[in-house]
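[audit] Reproducing an earlier prediction to check determinism. Same input, same settings, fresh worker. If the tokens differ from the archived copy the diff job will pick it up downstream; this log only records the rerun itself.
[audit] input (139 residues):
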Amino acid sequence: MTETTIELAQRVPAPRERAWAAWTEQSQLARWWWHRVPGTVIEADARVGGGYRFESVDAGFGVTGEYLEVVPMERLVLTWRWIDDGVVAEAVDTVTVRFAEDGDGTLVTVEHVTHAAGAADYELGWRDTIVHLDAALAP
């Protein structure tokens, strides 16, 4: 299967420290990641070797993985395994999130490398998810 790279960038109205916290602190992640999906549970241990699991049993989907690289205020690299009706996919993707100062805000760039045939669905999901990050960090 062909490898596909999805890349999206979103400028958020917050300093890099707040944008970083929104991606690495469990309580902050819960404010925007699938926060409107019923029954979503957010677990995150944002350190190299730490794991994460964002899942809605009610909706029947989620994602889980491991943090491979954690460079504070700059970059997160993590594995990405989709969960469908409680079953974790065998396919392992890689997601890189970068944080760069952008005036009085932060440019957050997400790069998702996947072999999945559903790359278009992932891109749509990322677009929807990252919009909620912007709203959660708005002044």
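[audit] rerun output stored. Observation attached for the diff report: The first helix runs from residue 16 to 24.
[audit] end
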